[in-house]
Amino acid sequence: MKFVDEYRDAATAQQYARAIAQITTQPWTIMEICGGQTHSIVKFGVDELLPNEITLIHGPGCPVCVTPIELIDQAIAIASLPNVIFCSFGDMLRVPGSHADLLTVKAKGGDIRIVYSPLDTINIAQANPTKQIVFFAVGFETTAPATAMLVYQAHQQGIQNISLLVSHVLVPPAMAAILSSPQNKVQGFLAAGHVCTVMGYGEYEAIAQTYQVPIVVTGFEPVDILQGLYLCIQQLEHGQAQVENQYARSVRPSGNEVAQKLMRDVFAIVPRQWRGIGEIPYSGLGLQDAYADFDALKRFNLSTDTATEATECISGLILQGVKKPHECSAFGTRCTPEHPLGAPMVSSEGACAAYYRYRP
């Protein structure tokens, strides 16, 4: 298939791997932010093509994985209520809360529906005017515009039986938090191409300069990732710290300005808890006051009590790139996709799920 096969071409991948080996003179540690990139790296063995001096570590770019456990508990509480239709992306259903998951609620009779777009909930709301429709809004800047459009359209159409449990998070503050950590190992980043398709990459300039790390906006296929790594290592070898765009076929410097305006109109930037990591300032999106009526937490008057992760789960360390999945004592034994201890084993973008599937 055109535009896929050419970025999975084995000969081209080998060519870039050889080029990386030729320019590498010392050890470098590079983090790919996006869980989609992680799965591609593990599935296609991209890391196994690299010289031993290059270490790839996996970042917190899995929105399902970083959704805080207390929000999962709140989702379960709402979905368990009578007269509620709870709508969610499919991989949220298996994410463990403190004592259960959404799939358990569904098995007990809760009306939980998997949607493929936030806008699907408008049709559900119109077809069920006596029900309360709640959408679990998770994701990075990639999915936030569609959530913002849901809120905008529901407001414009006067649909009053829709509300949202919002857990949108932002990538740049998470990158800064990782670089600020005493445990930080990251010397360069592969930034998520789809996020930058929406937001552009102007925000990354300050991070690159402040922390003196190269950041390469990168796509998701093996050749994309190897090209991104080549550019990043080239900068590291020359002592540079700039933002480069490998994914130019999709990403413009300014991003999608129409989508950005819609997000600004609907959302305000707020602090956000990241599962396994803690609170990161200015790292989340919450509804603006003008749209507060669509806030499910307020509509259902839910508390925001904190909850604790399973004690042997090291997902926080994995999401920060401090550990890899195989370094968890529970990996593949007490923690599997069927019985997960933490979210990275569940999500289609989770690092633990990638290792379990492709490198058991």
UniProtKB/TrEMBL annotation:
UniProt-listed GO biological process terms: protein maturation
Keywords: Iron, Metal-binding
GO molecular function, one term: carbon monoxide binding
NCBIfam families: hypD (TIGR00075)
Family: Belongs to the HypD family.
Stated name of the protein: Hydrogenase formation protein HypD
UniProt source species: Phormidesmis priestleyi ULC007
Source organism phylogeny: Bacteria, Bacillati, Cyanobacteriota, Cyanophyceae, Leptolyngbyales
